[in-house]
TrEMBL record:
Top-rank lineage group of the source organism: Eukaryota
Annotated organism of origin: Lymnaea stagnalis (Great pond snail)
Protein name: Ig-like domain-containing protein
Organism lineage: Eukaryota, Metazoa, Spiralia, Lophotrochozoa, Mollusca
Signal peptide positions on this chain: 1-24
Keywords: Signal
Amino acid sequence: MCGFHEKFINIIWMILMAITLTQEQKCGIAEEGKVYTLSLVIPPGSYKDEDVHIEANHGRIARCTLRTQTCINLHSNLYHTNLKKVEGSSVINVTVYNMTKTRFLSNDIVQFSYAFANDYQKQEMCEPKVFFRPRDIVCLHQITGEGLSLTCTAERIYPGGKCFFLLSFNREMSTIHSTSTSESIEELAEMPIYFKFNCNIFISKSTLVPALYHFNLSMYPSIYHSNTDVMYGTNDSLAIILDHPKLILENCPEYIEENKEVQCTCLNIDTSPINVFINWFTKDGQTVLGNAKSNVLKVKAKRIAQ
């Protein structure tokens, strides 16, 4: 399974290496809860002796003086700003200690800018892409008469969600036909700027055989709606073993008296729990009896399966 996981990671990186950065990505990616640093560049010859006001979503966070190359931080517990010369330009570096989207609830866009004190004309603007990486992914599987279904859930993600599945069959990567995937997303009532995200993969019973099925999942936020987003995701894996169950029938005589009720029970004697879908048939195998979801059959008949 370790080798398959390495192949999965290699495939992810092969996808990323084929992607080039777009103009939109100049401002960078800001992961919520992490330190984020951006640079605002003032071209050479622009207001050399003026003060520059630094803003975050139109709220002032610092004041820098180009002449002395110094900055005064107005919210030092949240931000740190410094100014330095780089190839003739003045570069203002803004560090956000804890990028939290809730700090910018007045606007869905997190925006940084600078303005000169004499005319307050904004000269540079930066809108980083803020995302929340899914954590503590929970995956649950279910086996029914239709097939095998695996659903993975992240309780919080932003700004959207996508899933990437790779499936191995008996420890080897394999294409399994009759599979389908689906995704759903819902807004969190208690935190409306975030979403709960579910993704599902389904394998039809027509292709299921006793084997080891190993699922590798990458769940990631929809930042640029491209394959680059997968590098900001969270990986998880799950192994599911399908085997013939060890069952016995209890109180299931071959013949019973007509109109006499018999309660026949199907018991699993394996030491570990199993997922089963139960159908009861008459001995000729033609007639289905009872509730297919129950391991107990109550029937009035001349003959039932043993």
